[in-house]
Amino acid sequence: MIKKKYFLILWLFTLPMLAQELNCNLVVNAQQTGNENVQVFKTLEKQLYEFVNNTRWTNKTYETHERIDCSMVIIIQSYSSDAFQASIQVQSARPVFNSSYSTSVYNFNDKDFNFNYLEYQNLNFNSSQFESNLISVIGFHVYMILGMDADTFELNGGQKYYEQARDIANYSQRGNLKGWEPPKGGDQTRRVLIDNIMSNTYSEFRSSLYTYHRKGLDIMASDSKAAKNVISKAIVNFQSLNKRRPNSLLVRTFFDAKADEITDIFSSGPKVKITDLVSVLNKVAPIHSKKWKKIKF
């Protein structure tokens, strides 16, 4: 009986460790306010760190080494009482098979992050109900991280996480808060991001995400030439999407995360034909043209 109780206690103790999906480095930077040492910022950072890393966001069990490495940097621009004006930069990465290298997957600069916060208030996520803009924005990006990570391992593997992100966007939109409103031309908001990724119009994005990582990067250690050819095809696949939706947010998001990596991949190792690749890169991601010039033929 004692032995059974011991194993039950041990199981209960280890369960929370196995349930957590993210290994998130969360920083609140208040330098722009001129009062960065105010205690409320330190409390907010600590509470959000614990909220993101200790909340169970899915029904899937993750072991410690499976947790997704990510970061959230919140820049507080101004505040008055409990009202904060801010932006948040969110990034995530995943390991590449048979290597010590981690590749950037999600990279999004969310400029519409205004919220209310009282020091030490409870932070609880509700999957079907609006709690606060602070909770909604953080929760939305958590599910985007989970969705895009899953899409790199399995074709359309992130669907259920994107659906949750869309649910958050839908119920948060009712508050008429910036970033959740219906898209207008040129918007770079959370609403645009999730609407695009769930639309068949942008299906090449998700198929390329899977091909680039699972069929490309993950075989780099065993056959780098074949991997480079697959990665090249995944990038060229963006061409048809770009013709339908030039300069789309999804394409910009992808290349913001991948520009340096693509340059490094095709500037060393076994040579492959990259004339078409460079041509496509300059068409679909011209903002990174200086980097594309570094690719060696």
> What is the overall silhouette?
globular
Helix content: 40-55%
Average of per-residue pLDDT values = 91
Query: How big is the Rg?
Result: 21 Å
Q: What string, H for helix and E for strand, traces the elements in order? A: HEHEEEHHHHHHHHH
Number of helices: 11
Number of strands: 4
| Order of neighbouring strands in the sheet with most strands | 1-2-3-4
pLDDT below 50 for ≥5 consecutive residues: which ranges? 1-18
User: Termini distance?
Assistant: 70 Å
Main sheet summary: 4 strands, mixed
Can you characterise this structure?
By secondary structure, the chain is of the alpha+beta class. It has a domain at 201-297. It is built from 11 helices and 4 strands, in the order αβαβββααααααααα. The chain has a 4-stranded mixed beta sheet with strand order 1-2-3-4. α3 packs antiparallel against α4 (159-173). The protein is globular, with a radius of gyration of 21 Å. The N and C termini lie far apart (70 Å). Mean pLDDT is 91; it is low at 1-18.
Features:
globular; 4 strands; alpha+beta; four-stranded mixed β-sheet; 297 residues
What's the layout of helices and strands?
Elements: H1 2-19, E1 22-29, H2 39-54, E2 68-80, E3 83-95, E4 102-116, H3 133-153, H4 159-173, H5 190-197, H6 203-216, H7 224-236, H8 238-244, H9 249-265, H10 275-284, H11 289-292
Parallel strand pairs: 1-2
Antiparallel strand pairs: 2-3, 3-4
Helix pairs in contact: 3-4, 3-6, 4-5, 6-7, 7-10
Condensed summary:
It contains 11 helices and 4 strands, in the order αβαβββααααααααα.
